[in-house]
Amino acid sequence: MLTVALTMVLLAAPLAAHGLDATKMVDLTHPFDANTIYWPTARGFRLETVAHGQTPGGYWYAANDFCAAEHGGTHLDAPVHFAEGKKSVDELSLIQLTGHAVVIDVSAKVANNRDYLVSIDDVQQWERTNGPIADSFMIMFRTGYGKYYPDPVRYFGTDKKGDSAVALLHFPGIDPKLAEWLVKNKKIKAVGIDTPSIDYGQSSDFKTHRILLAENIPAFENIANMDQLPVKNSYIVALPMQIKKGSGAPLHIIAFVPH
Fold first, then answer.
1. 31, 38, 188, 249: which sits with the fewest CB atoms below 10 Å from its CB?
2. Does pTM top 0.90 for this prediction?
3. Domain ranges (residues) in the chain
4. Which CATH architecture fits 4-37+70-258?
5. 45: left (phi over 0), alpha (psi -120 to 50) or beta
6. Rg (Cα) of the chain, in Å, rounded?
7. For residue range 47-75, what is the model confidence (pLDDT) as tens digits?
């Protein structure tokens, strides 16, 4: 995986050509710890100390083991997550995981509706104001729910765990009708959202996942700090842990923002 420093070096020239300042970055990643949000049926993040302190040789040594589900915290959904035979984490190219992005803000509509579905009209209204979304862009959907992370009741709708908790989930997502429209009318690289899932909390068929991932369009979920992004022309670098044949992976995602 490329380090942030190496990524900055490699991107500096092309970003400058697009009027972007490579020194101005926004980290869109929530930290991984005991409070990280995971699906109620998934095992959470665990960090276990292997060593932490002075060794008999007189030098400091620290090392940990960690364990986590693929799908939790700020993470990537690879297409194979809901589409048989489609790309796994390690099969996604860096070209697909980097690129310009637009931010479609529906937070005002979501404020009074936990189950809001981002609609075709939301995207079309954005385009009427800001111009057409170009090919090979990413679309980031800002619901405003990132401000509630990692409070499970406000962010998820419940703090309960297990199978019975799934029916209690309430958070906004992307309407499957919009997913179908995007596939038919746009050539996007990826979608991102500041909620636990691109499907809303009450979904039982995960149709938005099925539609987008079947077209090898990955999804970024539990995105942080989206309120710091402009409505268009930020440049996203989304680098997942390279889990071979993974259906998803923890994601370190950053944005370079315009001057």
1. 31
2. yes
3. 4-37+70-258
4. 3-Layer(bba) Sandwich (3.50)
5. beta
6. 19
7. 999 999 999 999 999 999 999 999 999 99
